[in-house]
């Protein structure tokens, strides 16, 4: 029944993203660091008690009358979604069938589907696209294979501060870039300004920039994700899926239709999973097809569970754990800086960032570093102070919550350099009282990405 339903809705040929173009672009598999998702079961379920857990929903909110809606808004409503403002959109925070904690656990045990269509999808193409993106990020894009993706950051020219975090994928003749919804206006202004400067300085290396408005984006996340996704793909795509490793992406065709999607393997939750970019006309139908294909294994999940899942996985949320005043080195993201970029530079803020990478004896280092914490007693929320034994402030919390998986209070924040080593004991001030805490390595729980064997050929 699900297949016939999907066929009826999805039969029109894709315009814009281009099924045949995608197939050509992603004939090869790609490494991808991505923000991933989870899925809900579509049959009605008895509403359960709502979670009272506090969750940060957005780095910026627009007035209610100005909130946008993704292509799945109506489908969320049918599934009993409770909406909140997030990044200028009305987004589901949870659903009537599961509390936030239950949804979190469902994702860890089965699979969940998250709507991330509020995020901004871009294409950068033209002779100067690679060099342009390398000028504003610390990534080694020149050595990035086709259909491979990397986590990166957009940088301020003078300070090396993070404008936004992003995922960049090389396709056949363009770069596919995903940025955060809460930074839409800021990023748009940033790209316009940077492209104008590039055009003036490099007139012989033109760059074309396109925002994929209306393009759907969902994240399927959890241990059953691959099995569930395989049910809705044609035979050729299923074969491709079997050898698609973490960090790779491919074009795939939905079973019994001509609808093609871009499937990237990775996750914002630490689980195995996929991020699926879908043509606007087919977003709702394909999402329903996924849900109907796994009614007892897949459910929608909202921002509440996404926040606790990503924190357990040690993932940053822009506007909280990252901002314009923070450099990749301070944010413990030095690993995103390409090896060749460390010697050649040539990117925004390189003088600041490359100096920070040096040893202290060479005048390098930073004054603060991002760390994880296990906190005793009450959970530490954003803004809580981290203090030393003498009560002196040495840092602050940027994210925190009770961990449904560990049954402990976990937090992320910035601490004075030298106090950042795992095992260091500190205090966190929660509602005026000191709570003992221990600096802890992240992720807080082991990641379960489907990675390529170390001895496999590149």
TrEMBL record:
InterPro entries the record matches: GcvT, GcvT/YgfZ/DmdA, GcvT/YgfZ_C, GcvT_C, GCVT_N, TrmE/GcvT-like
Binding-site residues for substrate, renumbered to this chain: 275
GO molecular function, one term: aminomethyltransferase activity
Keywords, in A-Z order: Aminotransferase, Mitochondrion, Transferase, Transit peptide
Predominant localisation class: mitochondrion
Region span, Disordered: 34-63
Compartment(s) of residence: Mitochondrion
Segments forming domain GCVT N-terminal: 72-340
Pfam families: GCV_T (PF01571), GCV_T_C (PF08669)
Membrane-spanning ranges: none
Enzyme type, top EC level: transferase
EC number: 2.1.2.10
Subunit field text: The glycine cleavage system is composed of four proteins: P, T, L and H.
UniProt-recorded name of the protein: Aminomethyltransferase
């Amino acid at each position: 029944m699900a297949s016939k339903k999907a066929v009826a809705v999805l039969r029109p040929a894709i315009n814009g993203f281009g099924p045949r173009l995608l197939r050509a672009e992603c004939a090869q598999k790609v490494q991808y660091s991505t923000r991933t998702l989870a899925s809900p079961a579509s049959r009605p379920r008895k509403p359960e008690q709502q979670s009272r857990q506090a969750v940060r929903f957005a780095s910026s909110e627009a007035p209610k009358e100005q909130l946008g809606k993704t292509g799945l808004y109506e489908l969320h409503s049918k599934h009993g979604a409770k909406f909140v403002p997030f990044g200028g959109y009305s987004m589901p925070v949870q659903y009537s069938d599961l509390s936030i904690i239950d949804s979190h656990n469902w994702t860890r045990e089965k699979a969940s589907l998250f709507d991330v269509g509020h995020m901004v999808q871009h294409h950068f193409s033209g002779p100067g696209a690679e060099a342009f993106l390398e000028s504003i990020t610390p990534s080694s894009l020149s050595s990035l294979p086709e259909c491979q993706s990397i986590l990166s950051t957009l940088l301020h020219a003078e300070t090396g501060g993070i404008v936004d975090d992003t995922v960049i994928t090389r396709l056949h003749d363009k770069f596919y870039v995903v940025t955060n919804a809460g930074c839409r206006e800021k990023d748009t202004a940033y790209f316009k300004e940077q492209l104008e400067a590039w055009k003036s300085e490099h007139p012989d290396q033109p760059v074309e920039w396109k925002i994929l408005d209306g393009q759907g984006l969902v994240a399927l996340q959890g241990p059953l994700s691959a099995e569930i996704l395989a049910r809705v793909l044609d035979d050729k795509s299923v074969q491709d899926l079997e050898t698609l490793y973490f960090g790779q992406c491919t074009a795939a065709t939905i079973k019994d239709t001509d609808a093609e999607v871009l499937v990237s393997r990775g996750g914002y939750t630490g689980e195995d999973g996929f991020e699926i970019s879908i043509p606007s006309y087919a977003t709702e139908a394909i999402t329903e097809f996924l849900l109907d294909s796994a009614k007892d294994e897949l459910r929608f999940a909202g921002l509440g569970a996404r926040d606790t899942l990503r924190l357990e996985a040690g993932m940053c949320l822009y506007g909280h754990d990252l901002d314009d005043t923070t450099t990749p080195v301070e944010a413990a993201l030095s690993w995103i800086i390409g090896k060749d970029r460390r010697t050649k530079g040539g990117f925004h803020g390189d003088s600041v960032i490359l100096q920070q990478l040096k040893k202290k004896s060479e005048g390098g280092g930073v004054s603060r570093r991002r760390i994880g914490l296990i906190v005793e007693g009450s959970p530490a929320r954003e803004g809580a102070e981290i203090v030393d034994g003498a009560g002196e402030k040495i840092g602050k919390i940027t994210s925190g919550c009770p961990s449904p998986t560990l049954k402990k209070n976990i937090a992320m924040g910035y601490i004075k350099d030298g106090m950042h080593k795992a095992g260091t004991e500190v205090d966190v001030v929660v509602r005026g009282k000191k709570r003992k805490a221990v600096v802890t390595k992240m992720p807080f729980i082991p990641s379960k990405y489907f990675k390529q064997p170390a001895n496999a050929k590149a």
